[in-house]
Specification:
mainly alpha; globular; disordered C terminus; two-stranded antiparallel ribbon; 8% strand
Length: 206
C-alpha cells in the first residue's frame, strides 16, 4: 500500500482510501510515484479498493487503468492536496461535481454510496469519504507533512491535533537542522549564540 511506504499510521475507516491516493507520490528519498505508469498504479488501486470495500462494507468495482485514467488520478490527487491545504488558484476551490447515491439500509440508516464508472466512481468515493470524515470530526486530523519535499499524508493522533510532521525523527529533525543552518548563516557562520548580557545586582551595603 502507498501509505506504508511513508511509514505513516493508516487513517480510520474509509478515509484511508483518500490517504492512499495522496501517498501515491514518491517518498522523499526512495521509491516512485505510483501514478506515473499503469504497471505501478494498477496493483496499488486494486489493493486500495479491496481494502476500502472490506472496511466500508460496500462492493468496490474493478477499475482497469489507462493512460487517460493516470492523468485523471494525478489531477484528483492534486485537487485533494489543495483541499487539505485549503488553497485554490484564486482563493476558492472548484466544486467536486461528482454523483453519489443515498441508499437506506435494512436498519433505516441512509448511506452515501459512490456511483459512476472508472475514475468517476473513484472520485465519487473519495469525495464521499471526505464528507463523512468531516461529519465525524476526523477531517482536521488528515494532514500533509510540513516538509515540502515530503508531503506525506498522515493521520494526526496527538491529543491536541498539533502534529505537523509525518515523522518527527526524519522530517522534523531535517527542518530543525535547516533552521539552525539559516540562523548560523545570518549570524556570520559562527553558529555561536550572542553573549548573554551581564546583570548587575545592587551594590553591597557591607
Amino acid at each position: 500500500m502507498a501509505s506504508a511506504r511513508h511509514g505513516v499510521r493508516e487513517a480510520p475507516a474509509g478515509l484511508a482510501l483518500l490517504q492512499e491516493l495522496l501517498n501515491t507520490r514518491a517518498p522523499m528519498s526512495y521509491g516512485t510515484d505510483l501514478l506515473v505508469t499503469a504497471d505501478d498504479a494498477q496493483p496499488w488501486l486494486t489493493e486500495a479498493l479491496a481494502t476500502w470495500s472490506r472496511v466500508s462494507g460496500l462492493p468496490g468495482p474493478t477499475l482497469l487503468i489507462s493512460s487517460a485514467d493516470l492523468r485523471s488520478l494525478r489531477r484528483l490527487r492534486t485537487t485533494f492536496e489543495n483541499v487539505l491545504l485549503a488553497v485554490g488558484p484564486e482563493g476558492a476551490l472548484p466544486p467536486a461535481d461528482v454523483p453519489v447515491s443515498l441508499v437506506p439500509d435494512t436498519d433505516g440508516w441512509v448511506r452515501i454510496v459512490p456511483t459512476g464508472r472508472g475514475t468517476r466512481w473513484l472520485a465519487s468515493a473519495l469525495w464521499a469519504e471526505a464528507l463523512l470524515a468531516q461529519q465525524a470530526g476526523l477531517w482536521p486530523r488528515l494532514k500533509l507533512c510540513n516538509n515540502f519535499e515530503c508531503r506525506a499524508a498522515f493521520f494526526d493522533t496527538s491529543r491536541n491535533n498539533s502534529g505537523v510532521w509525518h515523522d518527527v525523527s526524519t522530517c522534523g529533525n531535517t527542518a530543525n537542522l535547516r533552521a539552525f543552518r539559516e540562523r548560523r548563516r545570518l549570524m556570520g557562520g559562527s553558529g555561536a549564540l550572542p553573549p548573554r548580557p551581564t546583570v548587575q545586582g545592587p551594590p553591597s551595603l557591607i
